[in-house]
């Protein structure tokens, strides 16, 4: 990408530096070798080019900025967006405001990319200052288009308190959830202790339900790699209002990436008060659904080895939903063993109707030979749709 006329941008960059660079800005301790930048810009091998470029940029300071811009102009190199971001990460370490101002005033159409990457880099190096400048943008369209770059850089920084404070101010529920999940994922790079510390640092009275959102997504992130530790941490907070909704997220990740039977055991024995008891069965259902989709034979073995219970009834329903297309007779044989009378009748009608729609003769023969009451059989065969519709079939939760 051609960055435009060096002669025309240097007055802007120089003025921006005077405005943006504070007297206390930290500068690199060693002087970078300008020749290494020339070598990087002339290099065709992408890995070697990146190595040479980052080696130079790690030492870039305010004294070298003019030479660096001049080198780019001299080579008129086709520079990628990733390389722009690297350059801006170096520049915004010592002059975030200046880099952003220069990018916005760049005299070519590449100003858009430069502005985006400078804001990302500035937010990474000083999220609060970048956010304050972003708030001052009067063009609402531009402001909206730049928010992703502000947040993208800030969430990767070490300023968890700052990005969390910002996250709590986001009024759009989807954006707030997505931001919390992304912060959790970034923090997980440091390890589970960091994720837990971050979630616990968010105030209980944070606006927009942010404490609960953070706790739920922290549990979801932790459970992928550390299900038992997540379970222990969840139990310490189980009585808190902000733990609402976390149980199903834990179940989803645990069943997807680890041993589902261990999850079921934990969920069955988990002590829950009246306000949280309603979350147990949905979590069990989510875990069973994923288990059936992975290894239905293991679920059937589990069913055969466990005594009648509410959990087993739920497991049978999920097993039948997951296997009615491939093993309908076996699915129905389990369904008629459901203990709860209403659940058994409902599941029998639903599963038998699905079988009839896909294989009328096979299902009819099974119904004729079964001990299902005639009243239920009549419900099964009444008003059957002409085609099997799969839109209402429940599926395992996607991995968010």
Structural class: mainly alpha
Instruction: Count helical runs.
Output: 21
* Residue windows where pLDDT falls under 50 for at least 5 positions: 22-29
Largest sheet data: none
**Could you say which overall geometry the principal axes of the C-alpha atoms support?**
elongated
The rounded distance between the terminal residues' Cα atoms is 35 Å
In short:
By secondary structure, this protein is mainly alpha-helical. Helix content is 70%, strand content 0%.
Structural overview:
This protein has helices at 6-20, 34-42, 46-57, 65-75, 81-104, 111-135, 140-155, 160-169, 173-187, 192-201, 210-225, 227-237, 246-257, 260-269, 280-294, 296-305, 310-323, 328-335, 341-358, 360-369, 374-381. It starts with 5 loop residues before the first helix and ends in a 19-residue tail after the last helix. It has 3 domains: 1-157, no CATH class; 174-281; 295-400, no CATH class. The chain is an all-alpha fold and 400 residues long.
Question: How do the strands and helices of this protein lay out in sequence?
Answer:
Elements: H1 6-20, H2 34-42, H3 46-57, H4 65-75, H5 81-104, H6 111-135, H7 140-155, H8 160-169, H9 173-187, H10 192-201, H11 210-225, H12 227-237, H13 246-257, H14 260-269, H15 280-294, H16 296-305, H17 310-323, H18 328-335, H19 341-358, H20 360-369, H21 374-381
Helix pairs in contact: 1-5, 2-3, 2-4, 3-5, 5-6, 6-7, 8-9, 9-11, 10-11, 11-12, 11-13, 12-13, 13-15, 14-15, 15-16, 15-17, 16-17, 17-18, 17-19, 18-19, 19-20, 19-21
